[in-house]
Amino acid sequence: MKHIARLLLALAVIFATPALAREQISLNDNWLFIRADVPEAKNADYRAESWQAITLPHTFNAGDANQGGDTSRGEKEGVYYRGPGWYRRQLEITPVAGQRYVLQFDGAALVTDAWVNGKSVGHHEGGYAAFRFDITDALRAGDNLITVRVDNTRVPQVAPLTGDFNVFGGLYRTVSLITTGDVHVDLMDHGGSGVYMTTKAISAQKAEIGARILLKNDSAQAAKIAVKTRILDADGKVVAAAKTMASLTAGQALPVEQALTVRRPHLWAGRKDAYLYKVVVEAGSDRVTVPLGIRTVTIDPDKGFLLNGQPYRIYGANMQQPGRKGKGTAVSDAEIDEDMQIMDDMGVTALRLAHMQHPQRVYDDADHMGILLTTEVPLVDAITAGSAFQDNAVEQMRELIAQNYNHPSVALWGLGNEIRSTVPDANPVLAALQTTAKAMDPTRPTVYAHCCLADDDAIAGHSDVISYNRYFGWYGDTFADMGKWADALHAKYPKRIFGVSEYGAGASIRHQEDAPKAVVPQAFWHPEQYQALYHEANWRELKARPYLWSEFIWVAFDFPSFRRNEGDRPAINDKGLVTEDRQTKKDAYYWYQANWSDRLMVHITSPRDIHKRIRHVKAKVYSNMDEVRLSLNGQALGAQKVVDHIATWEVDLRDGENVVEAFAGKDLHDRVVWNYEGPIEGK
Q1: Is there a contact between 34 and 84 (Cβ–Cβ < 8 Å)?
Q2: Does domain 195-295 fall into CATH 3.20.20.110?
Q3: What is the DSSP letter of 90?
Q4: Is residue 279 within 8 Å of residue 290, measured between CB atoms?
Q5: pLDDT at site 99
Q6: Which of 112, 450, 557, 646 allows an S-S link to 460, with CB 3.0 to 4.6 Å?
């Protein structure tokens, strides 16, 4: 029976070898899950008979994340499950003396506890960073039971307390087992690599690189090991190396500092040239690899963002955690790559990763694509008074930095977003986060996204630079007020470095309106055309002001939010430039592609406005070409010069089907079909 049970569970078998080199083995398969609280599940004699067989990544909110409130019942908000879920898995292994065994969780929300063979091996609070539990002392030869309890209930001492997004519960990222020798690069450095590569100085002739390597001796004896660091170029050639002998007493943690020089460095220059080196660190039998991009980041109150000392315009979108309807945030690497490619195709130079740490794949992709990032801890809207909340926020900042320090794409660390009240006082928390960030990484600036209090409120004064969430023309005011506000603030505080961290408008691809009227954001009607007009006007205001260090659209993709009850369906924030399923790019997406991308393009707006009620309409085309030609039902309507990435024609539709085609250059072409159906009777 025992043999049959093993076959049914398809247990992972790890064959022990004398080598103590680091290995990382996926544990994504063969889990059992139940969405309930069953504390006895950690016991070996518990029978998980009614549990569901699942594969990681997995969230227990995949099915209810898009359930909004029922307005007929007076429900202003949706409700999704927030509570515990339990996971179990068998592991067959023969532990080897002198070797450590560590579970790595790449993300689990919101509070995680784990047991091996009924013995507690770790507790973690926070839903978005990776974390590790050393399970060496809990393992035995043969079968081992891993049990994990994950709970996404709101916890007073754990950020985020609230926000315009869902907290997806479960083991929604991957889990693995790391094995390495007793003397190793520290695995317990806040979930990070234990290696910190810092560019100290750059010239055309050389780059001075500092390496800080955290070692740990988990054995009962003193140890002496060689620590070798090599920097390899993109062709795999060693361009710099260092070697240090390190002596560690039993149980000691020891940092090792090394200096390396790269001759004639090839700089990481964003989208222009995202050149990456690779760093290989060998500490005794252990081995760690991290990326290195040689570059500098500075921000000036008049010139804005500077990359390698040169002005580099930062524009792009906010991106919530990658997700898909029916899967929540339990997405694959391929789906993350798709998100990043969509943004890359639009031409972004940067992304703001809102409002929490994202999967490592996002940072890896950004390194290779040359997309700069701001990445932040999930301090959103509110805090809890007291040391417990502050300590947790600080630990989440430590995790964010330790895990992402070596990514050249990471330009700024974010302290938080939209603390809406000074009661309880959030200033001590923000001050502690600022102190922590600067102590761990003095090379990168910090930023805070401010809203809903005075522009010069003390909350906005902790970070190195500030960004503002401003929705002129959506939540009141007019499109032109964006520029007026920015100019007034710059005049009042000429040395303040500030940007725009959010601006945007909602849109449903099901809502189409020629010459749209002003929209009520909280109402049902969110026409796609109004979103396009909003972005046309706001981008014109922003691009004319080079002193702004950044401009980030809210938001890249529509995403679930239980608090929303507006637009064409509840529980969705529809301000995305792309729909939640990633199948439809809204007109506003193409407006930015025309402005930002080097890829030649032409796009006829309103392709989904297929039921025309007005005969005489304006055909509008977005393009980054100098000239566009238009035809209606096969008849040429002539060419128009493209002015500010827009060309327009006045056209008269015939009854029934009308085919509109746009041409530019030799090969660019777009086509839409509009059906003229006459005015609505009685209007």
Answers
A1: no
A2: no
A3: E
A4: yes
A5: 97
A6: 450
Structure letter (DSSP) for residue 126:
-
Burial (Cβ within 10 Å: 0-12, 13-18, ≥19) of residue 568:
middle
DSSP string, 397-417: HHHHHHHHTT-TTEEEEEEEE
431 backbone dihedrals φ, ψ, rounded to 5°: -65, -40
- The single residue of 395, 399, 418, 566 carrying the catalytic annotation is 418
- Topology of domain 305-596 in CATH is TIM Barrel (3.20.20)
d(CA 599, CA 347): 8
pLDDT of residue 330 exceeding 60, the answer is yes
Q: Does domain 611-676 have CATH number 2.60.40.10?
A: yes
Distances (CA, A) of 493 to 105, 159, 207: 45, 32, 36
**Amino acid identity of 384?**
T
Is-contact 90 145, C-beta < 8 A?
yes
In terms of Cβ atoms closer than 10 Å to its own Cβ (0-12, 13-18, 19+), residue 363 is buried
Q: Provide the H-helix boundaries in 544-637.
A: 587-596
What six digits make up the tokens of 45?
A: 């004699």
Which band of pLDDT confidence, cut at 50, 70 and 90, is reported for residue 1? very low
C-alpha 190 chain-centroid distance: 19
Question: Where does the pLDDT of residue 344 fall: very low under 50, low under 70, confident under 90, or very high at 90 and above?
Answer: very high
- Is the confidence at residue 422, as pLDDT, over 90? no
Where along the chain do the CATH 3.20.20.80 domains lie?
305-596
Q: Is 418 a catalytic residue?
A: yes
Average pLDDT, the chain: 95
Within 249-354, strands assigned E span 253-263, 277-283, 286-292, 297-300, 304-307, 310-311, 315-319, 350-353
CA-to-CA separations, 485 to 139, 382, 489, in angstroms, rounded:
61, 26, 6
Residue type, 621: V
> What type of residue sits at position 651?
V
Helix (H, G, I), strand (E, B) or coil at 442: coil
Closest CA to 248 of 189, 181, 178: 181
CA distance 550 to 501: 7
Helix axes 481-492 and 528-543, enclosed angle (nearest 10): 30
Enter the tokens of residue 610: 């297929």
665-682 confidence digits (pLDDT tens) = 999 999 999 999 998 776
Q: What is the pLDDT of residues 69-113, one digit of tens each?
A: 655 555 566 789 999 999 999 999 999 999 999 999 999 999 999
Residues in the chain: 683
3-state secondary structure 371-400: CEEEEECCCECCCCCCHHHHHHHHHHHHHH
Tokens at 139, concatenated: 């393992």
**Other residues' Cβ atoms within 10 Å of the Cβ of residue 45:** 6
Cut 0.90: pTM above it: yes
Task: State which amino acid sits at residue 620.
Answer: K
Centroid of chain to Cα 132: 21
